[in-house]
Design a protein that fits this description.
alpha/beta; five-stranded parallel beta sheet; 22 helices; 22 strands; globular
Length: 612
């Protein structure tokens, strides 16, 4: 294998699994250490730079960072007892909320509106997370950003589709307010009905962050006859938010297996539904809803019935009385594609008074004329460059659900950052396809012969549970927040479970005397000195075979004996014992910090910066 290049930002970035997995590349271990140090405001600002909405995401994020967390993998490989509960990752999302809850007043630390406009005007369609991120990044640079929103207040689906028992309104008001206070012009109750008319207003760039506003319907027998008791879930949730819906029937069926279905069933339970059930086509483990969303629904007494395909709405005298379902099982072909096959059992009937359909979302762009130079694909989606977010009309960009279909808030934020860079480069006459390198630092944490500036002890604690409020347990209010969040003491304990994966074990081959002291001391057997070879061969010959091919090996240049040092990054604890034991200082613990370069002077071409 070729030696690992420590100058490549991805070399150590991939070792920080949580940050690598985060679409916005939030430096997770950095803010967790700040919480542990009693500095929640600093932790909040680290988050705010990357993900813009720490308080919102600390409650609602889909948490791609947590399945990637090394903590669970290390425990599985080092002593987890088979048959017991699976080791759990650090509660990264809930610690983000801690930073938001305990930060105090950070308004003075926010950027100020630009002193002088730069003469460029930007339109953002929709006031959801992607548009607000574009506005947050560009307004302080002097761009005149106008955000158009069909609803009265900013937030988009974060406000109208996420129930208040998960996300309090004051949190949305605060974090959208930080963006709007940057000199952004917000036009609420202003639905854009024509892209042609918008372009005629002379904006230098238009960003479309209008989400996927249309919920899919279900056209099966009985749909029209019982329409009064059948609702599309997205519309229903919005009607609940605006107060148009205040109660439901006693027996409610929710169709679908995503997070919207979970929000629908839990909302229905609080609005008077006594017998609420979720019925989904797929198997339970294949549902798109996050595992914790399913757990919360079942904890509130809502059963989830899987492998049932809806066949008809049953009605009498114009009123819904129930639904019939065909029972199926999943079969997979050689390529892994799933097919639902009828089991042959008799169809099931489930009585109900109302049905909420949450079987997916889709985009709707009737307001974009098709003769403007904006191409659409066969599914009615705009053709969007996945790097620059530009459409085929280069100064019109798309992000969030409007660009590539429904995902989640953190992806929308990442799209907003990327689109803002494209707009900034484009309007400075530079190629948006050339992306700025991240800001990277690698600093030794050595404070003495065997001391480090971070706490390298590894806590054996299991993941701490977030308590629920007593009032929320009654399930009688749609507005009482369910989770209380960690208090400061519990948050401190949870921070100690983090393995500080950003503090890297950096090896200097010229200092190594090949004494194998590091091999002897390593608690996870992740260091090996051996002859080089191809990757498959080398992985099998390590002290402990490196089985996770998704995590690259750390390979040194040839040593004096012609062997190489090979380290399996997958199970390293970052405990620093190798560096403490090394008699020559060949190992060092160095903190790696990567910050994505956002819109502004640093994202532009170096030669032009020098000329300026």
């Amino acid at each position: 294998m070729k030696p690992t290049d420590p100058r490549d930002p991805d070399t150590f970035h991939r070792v920080v699994d949580c940050q690598w997995a985060c679409p916005a590349h939030t430096p997770v271990p950095e803010y967790i250490r700040l919480i542990a140090a009693g500095r929640p405001a600093d932790a909040y600002m680290v988050n705010w730079r990357s993900n813009v909405f720490p308080g919102i995401l600390g409650r609602t994020c889909d948490r791609p960072c947590e399945p990637a967390c090394r903590r669970g993998r290390v425990e599985e490989n080092n002593g987890a007892v088979p048959g017991e509960s699976r080791p759990e990752p650090v509660a990264i999302c809930r610690l983000k909320r801690v930073a938001a809850d305990l930060k105090g007043d950070v308004s003075a630390r926010m950027p100020k509106p630009a002193e002088r406009p730069n003469g460029r005007r930007i339109a953002c369609v929709g006031a959801g997370p992607s548009s607000l991120t574009v506005a947050r990044d560009l307004a302080p640079l002097g761009y005149a950003v106008t955000v158009f929103e069909a609803d009265p207040k900013a937030g988009g689906f974060m406000r109208t589709q996420v129930p208040r028992f998960r996300l309090p309104e004051e949190v949305i008001d605060e974090e959208t307010g930080y963006v709007l206070d940057l000199g952004v012009t917000f036009l609420g109750n202003h639905r854009i009905t024509s892209m042609r008319d918008l372009l005629a207003q002379g904006f230098d760039a238009v960003f479309v962050g209008s989400g996927a506003p249309r919920g899919r319907d279900l056209d099966i027998p009985g749909r029209q006859e019982a329409a009064a008791q059948i609702h599309v879930g997205l519309d229903w949730l919005a009607n609940v938010y605006f107060g148009h819906v205040t109660k439901v029937g006693k027996r409610v069926i929710v169709l679908g297996g995503g997070n919207t279905a979970m929000d629908c069933c839990r909302s229905a339970r609080r609005l008077g539904g006594e017998e609420v059930k979720v019925i989904v086509r797929s198997g339970f483990d294949e549902m798109k809803a996050s595992p914790w969303e399913k757990e919360d629904a079942m904890h509130e007494g809502i059963p989830i019935l899987d492998c049932r395909v809806p066949k008809s709405f049953v009605h009498a005298s114009g009123r819904l009385t129930g639904m019939t379902f065909e029972k199926v099982r999943a079969e997979y072909d050689a390529s892994g594609r799933r097919k639902l096959v009828p089991t042959g059992e008799e169809d099931e009937f489930h009585a109900c008074d109302e049905v909420l359909i949450a079987v997916g979302q889709e985009n709707a762009f009737p307001w974009i004329e098709r003769d403007l130079g904006i191409d659409f694909d066969q599914w009615g989606m705009p053709v969007v460059d996945k790097v620059t977010h530009q459409s085929t009309l280069p100064h019109v960009l798309f992000g969030g659900d409007a660009a590539f279909g429904p995902k989640n808030i953190i992806w929308a934020v990442a799209h907003g950052h990327a689109a803002a860079v494209s707009i900034d480069r484009m309007l400075h006459g530079e190629d948006p396809k050339q992306r700025p390198a991240p800001d990277v630092s690698l600093l030794s944490q050595k404070m003495g012969i065997h001391e480090w500036s971070y706490d390298n002890a590894v806590s054996d604690d299991e993941r701490y549970k977030v308590p629920w409020s007593e009032a929320a347990k009654k399930l009688d209010s749609i507005r009482v927040e369910v989770e209380l969040g960690f208090d400061a003491a519990t948050a401190l304990k949870e921070t100690q479970r983090c393995l500080n994966c950003d503090v890297q074990t950096v090896f200097t081959k010229d200092k190594c005397i090949e004494c194998d002291a590091c091999v002897d001391i390593c608690p996870t057997d992740c260091i090996t000195f051996t002859a080089n070879g191809d990757e498959a061969d080398l992985r099998a010959r390590l002290t402990a075979p490196a089985l996770n091919a998704d995590q690259p090996l750390y390979v040194s240049e040839p040593l004096k004996t012609h062997r190489v040092m090979v380290k399996d990054e997958d199970v390293c604890l970052h405990c620093g014992l190798c560096a403490e034991r090394c008699p020559t200082g060949a190992w060092d613990m160095q903190k790696f910090l990567l910050l994505e370069t956002q819109a502004g002077p640093r994202c532009r071409d170096a030669k032009k910066k020098e000329a300026a």
